[in-house]
Amino acid sequence: MKTSVCLLALVAVVAAEVYFTEEFNDDSWEQRWVQSKHKEDYGEFKLSAGKYFGVESRDQGIKTSQDAKFYSRAAKFDKEFSNKGKSVVIQYTVKHEQGIDCGGGYVKVMRSDADLADFHGETPYNVMFGPDICGSTRRVHVILNYKGKNHLIKKEINCKLDELTHLYTLILNSDNTYDVKIDGKSVQSGSIEEDWDLLPAKKIKDPDAKKPEDWDEREYIDDAEDTKPEDWEKPEHIPDPDAKKPEDWDDEMDGEWEPPMIDNPEYKGDWKPKQIKNPAYKGKWIHPEIENPEYTPDDELYLYENWGAIGFDLWQVKSGTIFDNVIVTDSIQQAEDHAAETFDKLKVDEEEKKAAEDAIARAAQEEALKKQEAEEAEQQDEEEAAKEEEEGHDEL
């Protein structure tokens, strides 16, 4: 039995495939990533490890370098593949080192026959995944193409807003489930059918059903036996009984004097009969539902028969985003291993360097504050000395 389990595990490892990786370790990336010619003025990606890094060649990626530009570059996989009967994992890192205010940080994964030289916003894709920040929009997009139409996930997934590197992972499983991870931790998961409107609703309101005319949805009604008290009607405002006509009031010049109006303390407001339980109350009428004849289940919502290219097609107001450590595989373990060799190591170096820089900045701030306090104290001493000297002259 143990032998069988070991053999199965070995087969699983052997069967795992990595279809695409890119770490942008040197200038050769430009030969693999095609620059779109759809527009003439695309922004330029440049190699950069950014402000914080450990090993430059390991931690560098491609960085958006021009403000207020569209960017569009894509690369083909070594071979196309189908994810039938297995998971597909899309993973990469993003660093918005510029403190992004409006711009995309997502990838699009396409078929192998995508025209990368004409890659643009309307180019068909299987999946669009990653962060998008612009004003109040600060979310992780997960858009699935189904039968030629793009569908955005119905759940809100918040993205990271700081200036450090973050790892974004999307897993589509063959049981029609998904998992979105940020920095290796799941932030949203569930059923593809439930969390996207790919299929018509299973049930719809019965078009032949109508609420009965005598259906009473009023839980409470006016008490027919309740009557308004005879002394209820009081004016809301009355003349101020304590007001007196001013002595200098001239009726001929000022007109006839009238006391000012005040709130009537005996005013009770509009009378309404008390409420009682409605004996005819039947509850809120619920429209009956029937099976939707247009609904057909699909056990392969996760499936794309052809994967073969990946690209960045985005707009940025302020440039400075760095993309790196791209991997597309059918193995969650392979994706985790890749993150351990790239993102995890960068994260440690990045956090240490930022912490050191923050410490230096705090020390400089404290020193500046001490200097300011010393200058203010010195100025105060000088002012007090000058005041004492002036008082001495006055005494003489």
UniProtKB/TrEMBL annotation:
Disulfide bonds: C102-C134
Keyword field contains Nucleotide-binding: no
Residues passing through the membrane, by range: none
Composition bias, Acidic residues: 214-225, 248-257, 375-396
Chain positions recorded as an alpha-D-glucoside binding sites: Y106, K108, Y125, D132, D313
Compartmental location: Endoplasmic reticulum lumen
Leader sequence segment: 1-16
Sorted UniProt keywords: Calcium, Chaperone, Disulfide bond, Endoplasmic reticulum, Lectin, Metal-binding, Repeat, Signal, Zinc
Record field: compositional bias (Basic and acidic residues): 203-213, 226-247, 351-374
A single cellular component GO annotation: endoplasmic reticulum membrane
An annotated GO BP: response to ethanol
Family: Belongs to the calreticulin family.
Protein name (record): Calreticulin
Native source organism of the sequence: Caenorhabditis japonica
